[in-house]
Amino acid sequence: MTNKKKGNAFTNNPIVRAIGVQKVVVVLVLILLLIFFSVKSSSFWTYASLLSIMDYTYYLAFLGIGVTFCLITGGVDLSIGTGMFCYALAGGYLITKMDMPVIVGILVTVGMGVLVGLVNGLIVSKGGHAPFLATLCTMMIVRGLGAIITGGSSITWPIAGTPEGWTRNLFKFTLPSGTKIPLGFLWVLIAAVVMSIILNKTRPGRYIIAIGSNKEATRLSGINVAKYQTLAYLICGFFTGLAALAYSSAFQSMTPGGGGGVELNAIGGAIIGGTSMSGGSGTIAGTILGVFIMSILQTGLPKVGLQANYQQIIIGVVLLVAVYVDVLKNKKLS
Amino acid sequence: MKKKLLAALISVAMVATLLAGCGGGGDTTTTDTTTDAAAETEETTDAAETEETADAEATTDNSGLHLEIVSKGLQHAYWQAVLNGVNSKAEELGVTVNFVGPDSESNIQQQVQQLETALNANPSAIGLAALDTNSVMDLLQTAVDSGIPIVGFDSGVPGAPEGAIVANCSTDNLAAGGIAAQEVYKLISDRIANAEGTVRIGVVAQDATSESVVNRGLGFIQEMASLVADSGKTVGMASVSNERYVTDSGVEVNDEADVVIEVRVPASVTSELSAADASAILEQEDTIAIYGSNEHSANGIITANENLNKCGTGEGQVIAAGFDSGASIMQAVRSGVFAGAVTQAPVAMGEQLVETLVKAANGETVEDIDTGCQWYTAENMDDPEIAQNLYE
Amino acid sequence: MGDVILTMKGIDKSFPGVHALDHVDLEVRKGEVHALMGENGAGKSTLMKVLTGIYSKDEGTITFEGKEVEFTNPREAQDAGIVIVHQELNMLGHLTVAQNIFIGREFMKGKFIDDKKMNEEARKLFDQLGIDIDPTETMSRLTVGKQQMCEIAKAISHDAKVIIFDEPSAALTEAEIEELFKIIRDLRERQLGIVYISHRMDEIKVITDRVTVMRDGGYVGTLITKDCTKEDIINMMVGRVIYEDPKTESQVAKDAPVVLKVEHLNAGRMVQDVSFELRKGEILGFSGLMGAGRTETMRALFGADPKQSGDIYINGEKVDIKTPRDAVSHGIGYLSEDRKRFGIIVDKTVAENSTMATLDEYMKGLFIDKKKENEVAQKYVDILKTKTPGVDQLVVNLSGGNQQKVVIAKWLVRNCDILIFDEPTRGIDVGAKSEIYHLMNELVAEGKSIIMVSSEMTEILRMSDRIVVMCEGRKTGELGIEEATQERIMHAATLRN
């Protein structure tokens, strides 16, 4: 109760109100994390460290932006983790094993994402299946699909320095001097701004939010709920495709069957950023901040000498706290 | 209800389309690789022909032998290399071989069927790299009952009942890891000798259930520890190391030793997690060498180094080594980011498998064979002897 | 009336930015039914939440059976003997009646639940109360009225000394209300203290002994019911006089065209062969008991639920309505009986809710024209006199009546010619109610047509030009307002085949 009192003084601050309470809290947590890791690890506050945090941020941010749309409709897409791997494997397979032009690989990667997103959307909206179950099934399907396409072998997208390796430069641009520029951040930023505008300023965005807030009232307002629900999953699929590109240019290889669990990092990022699991509210800016926390934890925790299994526990606890905040918010609303 | 059904149908249809599209792609590549393989076989045949005339008499009694080999896959270049070795040796010995494998390493059921078909063909001997020993247990018994000897290869048939498998042709992974340690030690021995404080050797490993992957890490650690100890310096494991590796390697934890070996194991087998661990090792000032015990771990080191730019063989750079091939690792070796990497010898494995199978078919006693491995560097990676074992 | 059993004195409670209770007093005696009245937002519910320990009070004292008490959760209050029968029933539909009544304190036989004993105990309880319910019946199969009886039985089984009824009659038919009153009188006989929260003035006069009125979180006063008039109570509640006559004759022109014609509509068990016409400028009342199929008829008409057969004509033209979208495009708007579930989006703003059905018209290219959206929302806030600090206010922060106005605004913005008002004043306080009535009259005067589904007889008689009565999914009567009386409507509403 005393916390609540403190929170009131804090929440009534005009600046805090303008930005949104949760976002301010997230930024504070972010700063605390940065301070913590800087103190605990001398190598944390370096340019190289920034580059590697960025490697994690790109794909997680794309996944996060996409899944935020599903979460806002009151649904979820669990297929994004294994999907990201599957699409990257398929695209990479075409380029490296079948000698197709890189652009074909990119189109297939993103195209598969859109297609699976559409399938997810139709199963949920027209089929009336629970999003959790529907996308759990597609999660398994795409995991198997990735293995089948590549015949079980891992795939490496064309590596930097080769003529076909230009996709790597899209995210990490190497200057002639050898300095690397985290160019991908620009794309994430552009995507975040564009999707934020779509979510808040356009009709589809408005309807997607409305569906998550009160699906039945939205339907009774004469809105084609199925269409916009499908659209949310389609957007999510598209961004999963982009995430696949980001992942395959940041990292060396993808193994078939991999990617399970990545979706939870992205969903976790979105929830930390204030997107409600029960739908109806969420912001892209919040998601980006939440994703930052996830990627900083992922890069920072190994540096402070924590073993993998302990890292998982800490990330799990962070998520639990975020979920708890979400529950508290919903309580307040009702 | 109708609508639901329709939606379900649509989803099924779409997935089917996806599958069809991808399946088609898969087929085409297989053709491609087989063409390559055929071309290579032609070359080897030329060489083999001369031998054959010489050994003609010695091999005549093998004609009529038929071997069945069930691998874990077909499409991956590794299995194609095994197949190459198998084909050339079969040609040489004048035996017929049917080499099959499932579409993916997760398709256990398909492999079981393939093994069943192989048994029904009543071959002289069977080579098997089992995906899951339990699923083939009945068939192993059938083979024993019908007197068909089975030789394990690659990862073999772990946990098979006594007597079911007459021998194994596989890489000794402990030894393979040891080779990496020896080669890396050559490059860092001076630095260890001249070091004033502690120096650190990092290992990015996997906590895989597959023993072969773990052994590649353990082999490195044990060999490195004994080499350092022989040089008169003290050696210990970093306290942040993975417990399993500390226990299994038998090296004591000691953060103050002259040489500290730090083993990092990510929570799951993905490049991005390996990269985070590799970064954490590379960023420490006293790190002089780093080893990635499989393709993923090595790839993780490469990703980390892209940002940190610390690996190389020059003054003050970190000596890096990997295991297996693959586009990224080969590029890293070629460009000098990696001092070198260990590769298995799938071609030799294929050859020795056929040889062992023929012996077993003829009733000779056979024993386990280490099919060997090779250390490749920028200088020797184009030698045909090594290049045949590398694949992107 | 016996001794005082419960006294709340000087209760004060503040939430951030809201002074919810301002030194409120309440005194309940043994064997009395004490009405607690006030407009929505007056603080009745908050006061009861403070009493039962859901909220902690900032100031004041609660004395129960002569001892000062402070409950920290509803469980403690319940154990002490203070129980609430909620407006929204808290029943577990899949469990049986007996299982519901004894949930959380099941009879055990060793490690196992003793269902037999629970059924016996429940039956004893029902016999005591003179209720005819089978304890082994699944809860969801009971009518709302019966479910409420179970809630009451549950409260009594807790050995309650004070029972609070929070708008118990809102979802009940006239007959069920009668039965409820019988039980309440019986409880009064047994010297229980009863707090009765309701908006229905008629009931207050019939069942209660004293009335405490609250307004804007403050205590206004306590009256002896039989010594005061309806108007006295209303004046205390709203601070102004409201009086409206029932309608005596139809306001619709004789030659007014038929705007909507429904023929042989069938949709499940609850809508069987329903036909009716709606004229321009008409308010067509739909009367009937709970479960008569009125809402179901409206939902089928609107395309919200699938229909099996039936033709719909709008302005003489046959139309095909399969989804709410079709209905809206034909100019039909639907105000649902369950606002929060079907009408508004509570965590969105007034402006966003207002343009929900019409967003196409508030676009500037690809983007929503926020300025235009706010303007139109403000226009209807003014027209409807919606009480809101601004169009940016979240609807959740408005009172029930104002939420209803936002839903109305949504359909007015859409310029719907046919409006279906399903229980438009349910859960709305007296002042707002009368505003909604005025609004409906203005709308039909402008040439719009309204179908009004209502369970309140007075509302039906006050507003309708013509009345359709339904019973068990069938249309059982149609009366012009001139010939309609309560008796005639009730007769038709109970015409079972």
Report the span from N to C terminus of chain A.
Answer: 19 Å
Main β sheet profile of chain A: 2 strands, antiparallel
Mean pLDDT of chain A: 87
Strand content of chain A: under 5%
List unreliable stretches of 5+ residues of chain C: none
CATH class of the largest domain in chain C: Alpha Beta
CATH superfamily of the largest domain in chain C: P-loop containing nucleotide triphosphate hydrolases
- Helix fraction bin of chain C: 25-40%
Strand/helix succession of chain A: HHHHHHHHEEHHHHHHH
Q: What does this molecule look like?
A:
The complex is a heterotrimer of chains A (334), B (392) and C (497). By secondary structure, chain A is an all-alpha fold. Chain A has 15 helices and 2 strands. Helices cover 74% and strands 1% of the residues of chain A. A two-stranded antiparallel sheet of chain A has the order 1-2. In chain A, helix 4 crosses helix 14 and helix 10 packs across helix 12. Chain A is globular and about 55 Å long. Chain B is elongated and about 65 Å long. The N and C termini of chain B lie far apart (50 Å). With 392 residues, chain B is of the alpha/beta class. With 497 residues, chain C is an alpha/beta fold. Chain C folds into 2 domains: 235 residues, Rossmann fold; 236 residues, P-loop containing nucleotide triphosphate hydrolases (Rossmann fold), CATH 3.40.50. Chain C has a 6-stranded mixed beta sheet with strand order 6-9-10-3-11-12, with helices on both faces. Chain C has a 6-stranded mixed beta sheet with strand order 18-21-22-15-23-24, sandwiched between helices. Chain C has a 4-stranded antiparallel beta sheet with strand order 2-1-4-5, covered by helices on one side. In chain C, helix 13 packs across helix 14. Chain C is globular and about 70 Å long. The chains are: A mainly alpha (334), B alpha/beta (392), C alpha/beta (497). Chains in contact: A-B, A-C. The interface between A and B is large, with 71 and 66 residues.
